Amino acid sequence: MSPLVKIRSERDQMSAVERRIADFILENAQLLRDYSSQQLANALGISQSSVVKFTQKLGFKGYPDLKYSVGEAIARADNGDATQVATQATAAFAESASASLWHCKSESEEETRHINTTETLQAVADALATAGANGKVFMIGLGDDDIYARSFALRLSLLGIPSVHNFDAPRMAASVSAAGAGDVLLVFSEHGNHPALCKIGRFFRERRGRLITVTRHTSNPLRALADLALLVSAHDDRPYIQPVLYQSALQHLLDGVFVQLCEGDEQRHVQLLANLERVQHMLEP
C-alpha cells in the first residue's frame, strides 16, 4: 500500500496537527526528500516530536522511513510500476477532465478497500446470509442514500435473501418493532448523523438485532452504534466532485459484499442464475 494512499485514507481520523502534516506531505510529496523532520516542523510551525509521532502512528519506524517510502512510491510511478497505472494514466491525459475524474475515483476506491478489510466484508456477508436464512434483513436509506439501499435490496432478493426495505423513518421504526435476535438492520447514511436513523439503530439494538452501517470514514453517531461498519473514503476540495467519488466508492464496496455472498454459497449462486434467467425471460418480447 502506497504511503500516500495510507495517509489520505487515514486523514479524517487525524488530529488538527496531524492533518496539517498529512496535507503538507500529500501536496509536496516530490519535495519531501529535501526536508528533514526539523525543517518540516519549522515549515508548519509545530514541534519536531509531532512529526516523529505522526510517522510512527502510521506504522513507520520514524521520519526517515516515511521519507524513503514516499520516495520509493514516486520512483515506482516514474518507472512505470504496474500498481501505479492509474497515476500514469492521469498524467498522460492531464488535460482531460474525464481522465482526471477516473483517477480520483480510482484513488477513492483504493482508499475504501484499504479501510474495509476482507474480514469485515466477510462478516457483513455472513450476517446478511444468516439473517436471510433464519430471520429478517431490514434496510433503510434516506434521500440519495435510498438509491443504494433500494438497489442492494434488489440484489439480495436475486440471491434469495428477502429484505424489508423502507425509505420512511417512522414506517421503518414500526417495522423493526418486530425484529429479534439474529435479524440485521443495514442503514445507509453518508454522514451518519441523522437523528431519526440513530434512534432506529438504538431501538433495533434493544431488540437484540445486529446493526450494520454504511457511512463516510469519519467519527459519527451512527457508526458508533454499529456492530459492523462499512466505511467509504471520498475526499476532494471540489464540492461537485466529492459526492461523485462517494457514490463510486460506495458502489464498489457494495459490489464486494455482493460477490462474497455469491461465491460463499453454491445454493445462493444457483438461485441467482435462476432468477436472472427468469428476469431475462420476462423482458423478452
From TrEMBL:
Highest taxon above the source species: Bacteria
All residue ranges annotated as the SIS domain in the record: 124-267
Gene3D superfamilies according to UniProt: Glucose-6-phosphate isomerase like protein, domain 1, Winged helix-like DNA-binding domain superfamily/Winged helix DNA-binding domain
One Pfam family of this chain: HTH_6
InterPro entries cross-referenced by the UniProt entry: Homeodomain-like_sf, HTH_RpiR, RpiR-like, SIS_dom, SIS_dom_sf, WH-like_DNA-bd_sf
Domain HTH rpiR-type: 1-77
Official protein name in the record: MurR/RpiR family transcriptional regulator
High-level lineage: Bacteria, Pseudomonadati, Pseudomonadota, Gammaproteobacteria, Lysobacterales
